[in-house]
Design brief:
The structure holds two protein chains of two kinds. By secondary structure, chain A is α+β, with helices and mostly antiparallel strands. Chain A has two domains: about 1-120 and about 250-265, Rossmann fold; about 130-250, Tumour Suppressor Smad4 (Sandwich), CATH 2.60.200.40. Chain A is about 25% helix and about 40% strand. Chain A contains seven helices and 16 strands. The radius of gyration of chain A is 20 Å and the shape is elongated. Chain B starts with 13 loop residues before the first strand and ends with a helix. Helix content of chain B is about 5%, strand content about 50%. Chain B is globular. In chain B, the strands form two sheets. In chain B, strands 2, 4, 6, 8, 9, 11, 12, 14 and 15 form a nine-stranded parallel sheet that branches. A six-stranded parallel sheet of chain B has the order 1-3-5-7-10-13, with no helix packed on it. Chain B is mainly β. The chains are: A alpha+beta, B mainly beta. Strand 9 (about 180-185) of chain A pairs antiparallel with strand 2 of chain B.
Amino acid sequence: MYLILVNPKAGNQRYRRIEKSFTNLLNKLDIKHQLVMVDDLANIEDILKDHAKTQLTAVVAVGGNGTVNTVIDALADYRNLPLAIVPISKTNHLASILGAKDWKTGLKILAQHEKKQLRLGKIGEKYFAGSLVVSPKRTLIANFFERKSLLRSFVGTNTRATPKEEHHVACTIKLDDALTVKCQLHTMAIYFQDEFGKKMKIYLTTYSGKVPEESIFRADQIEIESSLNMPIISGNEPVAHTPVKIQAIAKTIPVLAAPSKSPLKKTK
Amino acid sequence: MAKDRKDFADPEHLDTLIGKEVVVEGKLDGEGDVQINGQFIGEIAIVGDLIVGEHGKVKAEIAAKNVYVGGEVEGEIEAKEKLQILETGRVTGNVTSEALSIEPGGILKGSSQMQEISEDTPTANPTFEVEEEKLE
C-alpha cells in the first residue's frame, strides 16, 4: 500500500483543482493507497510514525519542493522505505530527475517503476537530495523578472532591472578541508550525485568584466562564507543562509523512478 | 591521448575548472582532468591532465599525466607523459617528463629531466591524419 501525503497548499492550491482527476487516475491504475492531507508540513514526521507498523510500498510526496524536502528529511530515519514524488508545482527538480514531469506521470510511476538509490545531502540537521542554488537575493529577484511569461510581457516587466554582472558577493568556499576558493560569486549550483563515491558537483558562476565565467569543483563537504548573507535555495524555497556547511553524506534513500526504457510515454 | 587546442575550451570532460576571476589555495587531487584559467596556489597531484589556460597563474608543485601550459607556472612539474609549453606559456621551475615540447614564444626557466620511455609506449603518434588535412 502507498501512503500518499498531499500538501493541499502546494502550487497555489493546485491539488484542489485536480483532486477529482487525481483520484480517478489512482483508481484507474488500481493503486492501493491511503491518502493523507498534510495541512502543516511539520506533521509529516508524526504521520510517518503513525504508519510505522503498516506494510507500506512507498511514501508518496504530492506537492512542491518544500513538501518533498520535508518528506526526505523525515524518511532519512526509515532506511528501506522508498520515496515517490508526484509534482504539483511547476518547478520540482527532483521529480524531473526521477522522470515525473507532471502529476499524471508521477502517478503512473507508482504503477510501473524502477527502484533507484538517491544520495542524500545534509545542511545542519536537515537532509536534502537533488540540487541546491546559492545566490545573492538581488540575482534571484532579477532571475525571477527575467523568466518570460505572457503576463510579464503584457505589463512590461521582462526587462532587466539592473545589469546582472553587478550582482555578486565576495565569498570564501572551503571544499573538503583541502581547498579554499575565493571569488565574487554570482551563482552557485550544487548537485548531489546519484551514486556512492561520487562527490557533489559544484558550478560557480563569476563575472570577468561583463562576461560570465564558469568554474567546476567536486567535493563531499562545502563550507560557504560570504560578505552578505545569501539564501540557499532548494527548488524555489530558501532552506538556509550563509554561512553554511553542506555535506554529501554516506546515506541513500530508495526512490521510485520511471523505468529506463519507459513505457510511460506510450500511454500518453 | 594528447590533447588538441580545441579540447582546452571544452569543459565537458573536465573534473575541475577554475575560472578567470577565481583564486584557489590548497591541495588539489583527483582522477579527472583539471583546467586552471584563474589563480592556484598549493599542490596539484592528479591522475588526469592539467591544462593551465592563457590567463592561468599557478604557484604549485605539480604531478599529472600530461601538462599543458598556456599561462604562468611557478614550481616543479612532474608530467608522467608529456609537458607542453604553449606559445603564451611560461614555466619557472624544474620539470620532469617523458616528452617535452616548447612552442616558439614559450619559456622554460629551470632544468628539464627526461624520464625513460617504456618499450610498450609508442614514441610518436602517426601523422597521416594531419597529412590528409593538408591534401584537402
